[in-house]
Amino acid sequence: MIENISLKARILLPLALVLAILLGAFHYSLYRHEKTDADHRFMDDMQAAKNFYQRALARRSEKLGATLTAILGDEQLQAALRSKDRDALLKRAAPLFRQLHDRYGITHLYFEDAARVNVLRVHQPERHGDVIDRYTTLAAEKTGKMAIGAELGPIGTFTLRAVAPLRDDRGLIGYVELGEEIEDMLHGIKDILGIENLMTIDKQLLASADWESGMRMLGRKADWNRLPGAAIVHQTMDLPSGQLMRIQFDGSPRNAVTELEIGGRSFLAAVLPIADVAGRRVGNLAVLRDTTQNIEEMNTTLRALSLFYLALAGTLFALFYLVTQRVERRLEEAHLRSVNQGLEREALQARHIAELKQERDRLRRAQEELQQSEKKLRLAAKVFDNSTEGIIITDAQANILQVNRAFTDITGYSEAEAIGRNPRLLRSDRHDAAFFLDMWAALVEYGNWQGEIWNRRKNGEAYPEWLSMIAIRDEQGETTHYLGVFADLTEKKLAEAHAHQLAYFDPLTELPNRLLLEERLKQALAAAQSNNGLVAVLCLNLDRFKTINDTLGHPFGDKLLRVMAKRLAGHIRNSDTLARFGGDEFAIVLGDVGSPQHAALVAQKVLDALAEPFDLDGQEVFVTPSIGVALYPLDASSKDELIQHADTAMSHAKTRGGNNYCFYGAEMNATASQRLALETRLRRALERDEFVLHYQPQISLHSGRIVGMEALLRWQHPERGLVAPGEFIPLLEETGLIVPVGEWVLRSACAQNSAWLAAGMPPLRVAVNLSARQFRQSDLAAVAERALLDARLAPEHLELEITESIMIQDVQATITTLHRLHALGIQISIDDFGTGYSSLSYLKQLPIGKIKIDQSFVRDICTDPDNSAIANAIVSLGHSLKMQVIAEGVETEAQLAHLSAQGCDEIQGYYFSRPLPAEDFAALVRDGLKWGNGFGRQPG
């Protein structure tokens, strides 16, 4: 027994020790390899971030240099700077800005403001008192050449600047500077390279108060005490203070890597020094790479390989144990036989040696087979674990044996929670017992089943999946295991539901759209046809809804539509359909309405429901509808014809003043056809040169002479003659033709005024009205400038009129557009002043030169004290704001006397003249010059 133990100890104990040492060495070498590889990858990331930053800085330096060269080459700018004429400098700014914006991406052009992205600064110390305190400016002054480099701003921002001296024959006259912040380059490190980063500036170079106010102005986090010696000016990831302290921004070895744990995730961090153009180190750029996934993958690999290694080592140990035990038994038998048989011992020993060799060969073959099995198992394990579909393996009794990672991701159950349990833990209440009986019957009979099924996650959420089940059988045909593979269909179902919502419902009000309404109407008509029923369609349009959008804004209008839709939905039956066609147009389908009186009752109910005011954000709003009603089969025999006739009736209700309903009548088609014919002819009017301009004179109350005229559009219809403006201008607005026609009016008025000046008429200012659509054109200033240039008309001879409703829409865009027009020298006036919603705070910011008193106040100015007070207040307000005031619609001598007494500057109206064709207007002006008249008619 002692000999047996000694033999096993001599063989098995060293074997176990070797296996343990190999396992430890394997673990250590794999860990060190992954750790070294991660460090090398991070060092590559650092170098990539550094290279990206340097290349971006070089490219932008080239761009700024090219831009500055273009600026210095502008002769008009140089002339303005040499003459120290600031007005000329500002006048040159606008065309120069457009050139630089189109070619080099310049976004702002100014001379004394604070630094912005891509800006031009012109320093003239003698005139503007600028202090030359930047390194690039000092370098440009010292060398006399352009200097480019990155510098630290007073609030801690890092800016790339290009500066060049500007000289004339008398010497230095100033400096031209371009500046561009490099903030987006740091964002590019994250966006392009996927590396988190933050930049710090040495506090010795900053003042805390200036830095904190500057950061708040830029919308960034301003915490001066977050780091002891540095201030954070940029970060793509907000780090906890404790982790910030671990990153050594000063005094750390170059390229030192720090390992961090942030929010349960692992990061590698390192610091790159940041220097300015003077070569001094002003701060650091810290880069961080998320290594959580790499570490998790390494640990998973180590665990899997360890389990496999232990299984392999256990198998080898068991084999060696059996072999050793067998060898011991054979040796014992050989020893007994040698004692008993003597001479046969050598032969037996030889035979035992041969058997040992055979056993060794079998062991070697077994080891090779194990290695092949190991490779196959490793490949199968990778496929099993990395599959995007959930996989579940059960025994013949449907007890779970194994699940993959996707199973856990989809169901929420971990491997430990699932193993040993029945798949019934996933069952939802969406299927009855018969469903599962059919499924298992197919699985038993055919060996497989697949289809869509609803299961339940661990958190109780039911979800759809596509499931494939396979019965695994042995050689005798007995089922030993079941394999299930499933894919989560939640995203697919959501996408299908979203597509259905988009296809059949209005996204603003969540009501059915036109497509769904037509389908339901089609069903209602089919039902009515089979039972001789009556179907009604109500088309509803809000009266003057555009005014609400123009005055209170489109977001307010959208909110009003949503609230109104909910109110309307509460006043119809569940069997009826309320839909939104778009804009402020709605429709209601009343199935089996019974009689026309019932449809009228519904229409009246809608009118009553909308009669109550809407209170939105403290603003009380009233809306009224125009409703058209058409009946099947009385008015139409198809759904399209029924909707069309209801829309025709709605248009008729709107012409009657709105806030009423109207049943369809055959005579309405004639009116609609006439309007359609007019619209069709109107679309060809511009190309057929059917539009003309009439001019109404504007009279100065100080001199009594014509000082300007308003250009008014007229349509010379080939059959009807002159069409009233109120009949065709709304059509121009609705069809969008107002934009090209409005440009034609502008160009024609400029050309006519230029022709009159060339013919010797006195200089007059022509006023042109701008529609809301025309004013919102992004290139309006360019259109006006081209019209002036083509007509060779000076800007001071053109006046553009806008309404108050235009002025208060998108105030920032309005201010920008009006300043661009004013910069061209064009005078701006407000038409119909006092009838809209004026904001005096914006009025004083706008370059308005004239306000026009609306004729609704002038008409009763002598008899209505309220209108008189309003007109007097407008005159006083205009003069206080240094604006001219003109009154329109002056038709009597009493109105003229009243306005003159109040100090009104100009008038226009029938008292002096109606709008005249160009020839008659020119004759009126020439007669006034000939006779020297002010007000009144010429003799004869």
Q: Helix and strand layout, with pairings?
A:
Blueprint (H helix, E strand, L loop, with lengths): L1 H71 L2 H9 L2 H19 L14 E5 L1 H4 L6 H9 L3 E6 L5 E11 L2 E11 L1 H11 L2 E7 L5 H10 L12 E6 L5 H6 L11 E5 L2 E11 L5 E10 L1 H50 L2 H43 L3 E6 L4 E4 L1 H7 L3 H4 L14 H14 L1 E9 L5 E12 L5 E10 L1 H15 L9 H18 L3 E8 L2 H8 L1 H16 L7 E6 L2 E6 L5 H16 L2 E3 L2 E3 L3 E8 L6 H17 L4 E4 L3 H19 L5 E10 L5 E12 L3 E3 L1 H11 L2 H21 L6 E5 L2 H4 L4 H12 L6 E6 H4 L3 H13 L3 E7 L6 H4 L6 E4 L1 H4 L6 H16 L3 E5 L4 H9 L4 E3 L7 E2 H14 L9
Descriptive report:
The protein is α+β, with helices and mostly antiparallel strands and 940 residues long. The protein contains 31 helices and 31 strands. A hairpin with a 5-residue loop joins β22 and β23 (706-717). The radius of gyration is 44 Å and the shape is flat. The N and C termini lie far apart (153 Å).
From the helix content, strand content and strand pairing, which structural class follows? Answer: alpha+beta
- The shape, in one word, is flat
**How many H/I helices?**
31
Helix content bin? 40-55%
Record the strand order, biggest sheet. 22-23-25-26-27-28-29-30
> pLDDT below 50 for ≥5 consecutive residues: which ranges?
112-120, 123-131, 935-940
Strand content: 15-25%
Cα Rg: 44 Å
Report the strand count.
31
Mean pLDDT across all amino acids: 81
Largest sheet: 8 strands, mixed, barrel
Distance between the termini: 153 Å
